[in-house]
Design a protein that fits this description.
4-stranded mixed beta sheet; 10 strands; alpha/beta; Aminopeptidase
């Protein structure tokens, strides 16, 4: 569960970065086309940002923020020892294939095969992520509490409002409901607790008129106020206002987004003014502007209340609104074309910039069964008649690199309750081996769409990217699944082998040799052999291949640290004896 929450938090960060880019792009477009866009276009262009923050994923493109994030997420810093190992690998690759291979190997290290040089402990990085997550969720909870308090305050205002209103005001309201073709019933209320004319209510909309305004302004001014609030209702601005409130809670940590939400509310009022004027006769825009000025004069201290759209947000914005009202022009073809161009540019950028669909699915699929290499997951019947041809090095890899040890994860979506992903464990083992002076590489695998293709997926990565793989140590790192029927030691390392593998005896000797070097009394070890492993667990690719299950889903970070250390030491000792 913790891993799922951390995954969602990572997606939230990605979505926040996407939002920042879109905000900067929208502000640039608005400034560039300032005089060519109508207030309505200035407002509606922000809807692309809102949609993207709610649905951050889209088609796979080269601009996927998730790809950039994933490629740099683990590669924090490169230490001198790692650089030496990489340089030696490139030199050896050059001797294998000639001068032309160096470029290909370099590209493979950055694309197909992610070698993970890490100077900061992965466990510590995960702990830091968890700390930030808990800080975020705590502040979100506090803000939700503030929101609920504000909503209760709004309900109290509704209950204490004056519901018997001026008959003329009621007639004006009903008249403009018909004129503007609004069929929803709207209640008119007077209140001393509201500082500005406002609209509230998603299901049962209500228009609040402050007492001092209701009893002071003329019927003509009241008409303009009603038109303004009904325009908000017709445009569904109250829904947008609630969405912005919720997004402000979720993205409280991002000042760029918070600033954009304030700008959206301002543009919403400008758009509303523009549409109100479109209902008026020629020359009435000046009278509408005068009404805004009179409302501003009567408005006291602006008390912000959750869930309402106020006619006057801030005194500083009124001057800008008055200027725009005085310069009102009807929409022409030029405005429409520039508006369409702006929408296409920002919309296209919104489609290109996205978090991967796979990442979203991984984070939100709480109920999906996690794939594990246990006896229940192996179809012995299907494999009983299967024969696997031994792979050899006569197959030329597409892009390859030399290595003594290759670490990978056939089930990369496995994780521990503490939040550690199994891919981090593979990368951590690789990092420690490199620091011990061993030539090791980590192949970062992606989970296939179908679980049954897990081993064929990693098989392809190995055969296409690892040079001389039949003489390479291949370690497939997993963790065991703890179910209700099985009592499994959380401090246990299980070496799994496939008997249908033609290299079974050699792989068994290799596993036994590793066990000899694991002398820790704190860690229990065992070798278990299946009669028919799926694709032989890819152990037919090398004489030194083994699937290693490191603890189970309930293993603690301390347990995992012990596993990693003993495995690294065992591999180091085994290499020194060669």
């Amino acid at each position: 569960m913790c891993m799922d929450l951390l995954s969602i938090f990572e997606i939230l960060i990605l979505s926040s970065l996407i939002g920042d880019i879109l905000v900067l792009a929208i502000l640039a477009i608005k400034k560039l086309l300032k005089n060519n866009l109508t207030p309505t276009f200035h407002y509606y262009i922000w809807l692309i940002l809102i949609i993207k923050l709610i649905i951050p994923y889209g088609p796979e493109t080269s601009l996927n923020i998730s790809n950039i994030y994933e490629n740099n997420h683990i590669q924090i810093a490169t230490n001198e020892n790692t650089e030496k190992i990489q340089n030696n690998s490139l030199i050896q690759a050059k001797t294998y294939q000639g001068n032309s291979i160096q470029k290909e190997v370099f590209q493979s290290l950055n694309k197909g095969v992610n070698r993970i040089p890490i100077s900061i402990s992965l466990e510590n990085r995960i702990h830091v992520e968890k700390i930030f997550f808990y800080i975020w969720i705590t502040i979100v909870a506090l803000l939700i509490g503030v929101l609920m308090t504000g909503y209760k305050k709004l309900n109290r205002i509704i209950k204490t409002s004056i519901k018997i209103v001026n008959t003329t005001h009621e007639k004006i309201l009903y008249n403009y409901l018909k004129i503007m073709n609004i069929k929803t019933n709207v209640e008119l209320l007077y209140s001393s607790k509201i500082s500005s004319p406002s609209l509230c209510g998603l299901i049962k909309p209500k228009i609040f008129i402050p007492n001092n305004i209701a009893f002071s302004i003329s019927d003509e001014d009241f008409r303009y106020i009603i038109m303004h609030e009904l325009t908000h209702l017709k445009n569904k601005d109250i829904i947008i206002n609630w969405i912005l409130t919720l997004l402000s809670i979720i993205y409280w940590f991002n000042p760029i987004l918070i600033y954009s939400f304030r700008k959206i509310r301002q543009d919403c009022e400008h758009s509303c003014d523009d549409k109100v004027i479109s209902y008026l006769d020629q020359g009435e825009n000046v009278q509408y502007g005068n009404t805004l000025i009179r409302v501003l004069e009567l408005v006291g201290k602006n008390n912000k209340i959750v869930g309402i759209t106020s006619m006057v947000i801030s005194n500083s914005e009124i001057k800008r609104r008055i200027i725009m009202i005085s310069k009102y022009r009807k929409v022409n073809i030029k405005n429409f074309l520039f508006g369409a161009i702006a929408v296409i540019i920002i919309g296209g950028l919104g489609i290109l910039l996205n978090a991967s669909n796979k990442n979203i699915a991984k984070a939100t699929s709480f109920e999906l069964q996690r794939p594990v290499a246990t006896s229940e997951n192996i179809d012995n019947n299907a494999m009983s008649t299967s024969t696997t041809k031994t792979s050899s090095d006569t197959t030329t890899p597409i892009v390859n690199f030399p290595s003594n040890i290759v670490i990978y994860n056939s089930h990369p979506d496995e994780d521990y309750t503490s939040g550690l992903k199994i891919t981090y464990i593979g990368a951590l083992i690789n990092d420690k081996l490199i620091k011990e002076g061993l030539k090791s590489n980590f192949i970062k695998c992606s989970a296939p769409e179908e679980y049954i293709n897990s081993y064929s997926n990693t098989r392809k990565l190995i055969t296409e990217n690892v040079n001389n793989y039949s003489k390479t140590i291949l370690l497939d790192i997993h963790r065991n699944e703890l179910d209700n029927q099985t009592k499994y030691d959380t401090r246990k390392i299980l070496f799994q082998l496939a008997k249908n593998n033609p290299h079974y005896e050699e792989n068994k000797k290799f596993a036994e040799s590793l066990l000899e070097y694991i002398n820790s009394k704190e860690v229990e070890t065992e070798i278990y052999s299946y009669n028919n492993g799926k694709l032989c667990f890819n152990q037919d690719l090398s004489n030194n291949s083994v699937l290693i299950e490191i603890g189970n889903s309930m293993s603690s970070d301390t347990d995992i640290e012990s596993y990693v250390n003993v495995i690294v030491q065992a591999l180091k000792n085994s290499q020194n004896t060669l």
